[in-house]
Design goal:
Blueprint (H helix, E strand, L loop, with lengths): L1 H4 L4 E5 L14 H12 L18 H14 L4 H6 L2 E5 L2 E4 L5 E4 L2 E3 L4 E3 L3 E2 L8 H4 L18 E5 L3 H12 L3 E5 L11 H13 L3 E3 L6 E5 L2 E6 L2 E5 L1 E4 L4 E2 L13 E2 L2 E2 L12 E3 L14 H16 L16 E3 L5 E5 L2 H6 L5 E7 L4 H5 L6 E7 L4 E7 L3 H13 L19 H46 L1
Parallel strand pairs: 1-2, 6-18, 8-9, 8-14, 9-10
Antiparallel strand pairs: 3-4, 4-5, 7-15, 11-12, 12-13, 16-17, 19-20, 20-23, 21-22, 22-23
Helix pairs in contact: 2-3, 2-6
Length: 474
């Protein structure tokens, strides 16, 4: 679409490796399932002894399939064709002679430039016996629409998609075991926040094994067995939640001189590859900030890559600020963060940092909604500059975006007190944090007196003067 808007003639090649028609909305599939699971919250039916497993309804899967299908229609081949995009489905590869081209379905496509945006696919594990026993990944999750829902699940891996799915399956009435190799379920998150999510998962009935490696998968009489250490569990289905791997195979990239490795395609500052006509963007390049892929970052890369592929004037990619992108994990309660974490602030040994912590149990809206668990943490400097925030609780993904905008616009925490705040609303969590900082400043001025305040101002002035001198010297 970006190339069409630049009045280019575009052929979009969709690999037939993606058999699932909802592949491009795959990350939203567990989210759609979770909406039904949270709404239903059925009584857990855990079989004991030799009693049969309860029959689980396919309705949540049908709902998720229909919802993601409606989203997929927004980028359907018919709509793309209406905008002038020629969509071709199949498996092809680059060829170098006599000219650089792409061969697919007995056709040879030649273009001024080629953009590789194949993304990433679910990682296939090397656990002995898992290939013979069979397993599911996020790409294959929608296949359960037309078959009975397994009752006993083992989820292997610490990716967020596995944590979200574990809670959803437990709330749908399944027996779920979550097995991770790391010391906590969400290795990129603050231990206190990850601990809160773990407590909720265990309350929902998820059995969690930390720092555990599955050594073998076996199958007998229709049941599967996951073996780790001296233990084994009997299960009906395995879901693998390992990091995605870039999709670079089968396109003959090495044959045309495009360099790549296990982490993705090698690119320069202009998103060009080692071949001057071939560009790459998105998760196929392996760019990860904060531990997760970002759709916002991928859209930004696509804009730069298309512009550079079609124009002689080259524009450099600028990743500054993308370490401050907001992230969210859609468990219940959800977890969201942006910028510096409280753990990083604690270990940084910086004396000018303040962590403003507010609990949902003090928010009128949360009290009225009977959702009083959760808290927010905003990391600021003594001067009020916002460096980061973490929120776990109701509406956390929406609240974190307000703080992300504040960080991007370089607003201070005191500026947030000037934002009109409805009451009752969850925005009061942020408003109360800003008021807490103002109270902290009043106490500090009262405690230190006017002389210490003048010393602080003098230190700030001398610091800025030294920095300006250093910048001039550079």
């Amino acid at each position: 679409i970006e190339a069409v808007e630049l009045q280019a003639r575009v052929a979009l090649i969709l690999s037939s490796l993606f058999e699932d028609r909802h592949h491009f909305q795959r990350d939203l599939y567990p989210y759609a399932l979770a909406q039904i699971a949270t709404a239903q919250r059925p009584h857990r039916q855990i079989p004991t002894g030799g009693s049969p497993s309860p029959q689980l309804s396919n309705y949540p899967w049908r709902y998720a399939d229909a919802a993601t299908g409606r989203l997929e229609q927004q980028s359907s081949p018919a709509l793309l064709a209406a905008r002038g995009v020629d969509t071709i489905v199949g498996n092809g590869e680059f060829c170098l002679r006599p000219h650089l081209a792409f061969n697919i379905n007995h056709r040879t496509l030649r273009a001024r430039a080629y953009l590789i945006a194949t993304g990433a696919v679910a990682h296939y594990p090397l656990i002995p016996g898992i290939q013979e026993s069979g397993y599911l990944t996020i790409d294959r999750l929608s296949s359960l629409v037309d078959r009975p829902i397994p009752h006993r699940w083992a989820i292997i891996g610490s990716e967020t998609i596995g944590v979200e799915l574990a809670q959803t399956l437990a709330r749908l009435g399944c027996q779920v075991t979550l097995i991770v190799e790391t010391a906590q379920i969400l290795p990129y998150e603050d231990p206190d926040l990850a601990g809160q999510i773990q407590i909720q998962l265990e309350a929902d009935g998820v059995q969690i094994y930390l720092a555990t490696v599955v050594t073998n998968i076996s199958q007998d009489d229709g049941s599967k067995f996951a073996i780790f250490g001296d233990e084994s569990i009997e299960i009906d289905e395995i879901f693998v939640a390992l990091p995605d791997r870039p999709l670079v195979e089968s396109f003959n990239l090495s044959g045309v001189g495009v360099e790549y490795n296990d982490k993705g395609i090698s690119i320069d500052r202009y998103l060009g590859t080692s071949h001057r006509q071939i560009y790459a963007c998105g998760s196929v390049c392996g760019n990860v900030f904060g531990g997760y892929h970002s759709q916002h970052l991928e859209r930004y890369e696509a804009k730069i890559a298309v512009a550079n592929a079609l124009n002689k004037r080259q524009r450099k990619i600028d990743y500054s600020g993308y370490d401050r992108l907001p992230w969210a994990i859609y468990t219940d309660p959800p977890l969201a963060r942006v910028g510096m974490t409280s753990g990083a602030a604690t270990t940084s040994n910086r004396r000018d940092l303040i962590i403003l912590k507010q609990y949902f149990k003090t928010c009128p809206k949360a009290i009225l909604d009977n959702v009083t668990s959760g808290f927010s943490q905003i990391i600021v400097t003594r001067q009020g500059k916002i460096l980061g925030a973490e929120i776990i609780g109701q509406n956390a993904p929406e609240l974190i975006q307000i703080l992300a905008v504040a960080i991007q616009q370089q607003l201070k925490i005191s500026d947030l007190t000037n934002i009109p705040c409805l009451s009752p609303s969850y925005m009061e969590i942020i408003d109360r944090a800003a008021q807490e900082w103002q109270a902290h400043q009043r106490q500090r001025r009262h405690r230190t007196g006017w002389f210490a305040a003048m010393i602080d101002r003098l230190q700030q002035f001398l610091g800025s003067l030294v920095l300006s001198r250093l910048s001039w010297w550079k």
